[in-house]
Write a structure and sequence with these properties.
Layout: E1 3-9, E2 14-20, E3 25-29, H1 35-44, E4 48-53, H2 65-72, E5 76-79, H3 89-92, E6 110-112, E7 116-120, E8 123-129, E9 138-142, E10 147-151, E11 154-155, E12 158-159, H4 169-180, E13 188-191, H5 199-205
Parallel strand pairs: 3-4, 4-5, 5-6, 10-13
Antiparallel strand pairs: 1-2, 2-3, 7-8, 8-9, 9-10, 11-12
Length: 211
C-alpha cells in the first residue's frame, strides 16, 4: 500500500505530495516552494526519491523543482504542452503578480505525450490529460490505492481558475466530467490547494458541476 504525505508550501499554500511505496522509494508531486521542508520529510522518513512529477507548470507548483532535482539527481516529468512554461514567466503565471518574482525553471527531463500507465520503480499510476486550468494539466490516478492527484483541475467545492495562459472553462469542465467524476465515487482526489475530496462529493455538492 502506498503512503501519502502532504505539505502545504509557499505563499499560496500549494499542496506538495510525497507518495512512497516499497523499500521507501518515493515520488515528489508539485514541489511548489520551501525545498527544505520537503527534504526534512524525506530525511525523517528515510525515503529515496525517484522522480518529480508535475500536474502542471504554474509558478506555485514549481518553485522547488530545480533544487530538489539537483539534490537527488532525479528526473522531472511534465506534459509536453507545457514544455515552455517552466522557463517563461508569462506562461507560468509569475509575471502576472508584482509581488512574485519571475520563475524560471530548467526544462523537464521527461515529457508526457499520451495518456498512459507510468511505472517508476515500485510505483504504478495512470496518467489522465485533464486540460482547462492549463493546457498540459494532468491527473495521476492510483487505482489499487483508490486515490488521484489532480492538481488545480478540481477542488473541494470548486474548480480550477481559467484566466491564466491558455485556460478554458469549457475544456476544464469537460476534463472533470470525463476523467475525474467517472472514477469510483469514493476515490480520494488530492488537489493542488485545500483538502481532499471525492467524485461522489463533488458530483452532489460542487456548485460549478451541478446542472
Amino acid at each position: 500500500m502506498l503512503k501519502i504525505d502532504r505539505l502545504e508550501l509557499g505563499p499560496v499554500q500549494t499542496n506538495c505530495y510525497i507518495v512512497s511505496g516499497e523499500d521507501q522509494h518515493c515520488i515528489i508531486f508539485d514541489p511548489g516552494e520551501e525545498a527544505g521542508k520537503i527534504q526534512a520529510v524525506i530525511k525523517r522518513k528515510q525515503l529515496k526519491p525517484l522522480a518529480i512529477l508535475l500536474t502542471h507548470a504554474h509558478f506555485d507548483h514549481i518553485g522547488a523543482v530545480d533544487e530538489l532535482r539537483e539534490l537527488y539527481k532525479i528526473p522531472v516529468y511534465l506534459h509536453h504542452k507545457e514544455r515552455d512554461f517552466l522557463g517563461t514567466p508569462k506562461l507560468n503565471g509569475s509575471a502576472k503578480y508584482a509581488a512574485v518574482p519571475d520563475y524560471r525553471v530548467a526544462p523537464a527531463d521527461r515529457l508526457i505525450t499520451d495518456e498512459q500507465t507510468l511505472v517508476i520503480g515500485p510505483i504504478t499510476m495512470d496518467i489522465f490529460h485533464t486540460p482547462g486550468h492549463s493546457p498540459g494539466s494532468v491527473s495521476f490516478y492510483f487505482p489499487e490505492d483508490r486515490f488521484a492527484i489532480v492538481g488545480d483541475t478540481l477542488f473541494s467545492g470548486s474548480i480550477g481558475r481559467t484566466d491564466l495562459a491558455e485556460g478554458s472553462e469549457s475544456v476544464l469542465l469537460q476534463s472533470i466530467s470525463s476523467s475525474l467524476l467517472t472514477l469510483p465515487g469514493e476515490t480520494f482526489l488530492f488537489p493542488g490547494h485545500g483538502p481532499e475530496t471525492t467524485p461522489k462529493q463533488e458530483s452532489q455538492y460542487n456548485p460549478f458541476l451541478r446542472p
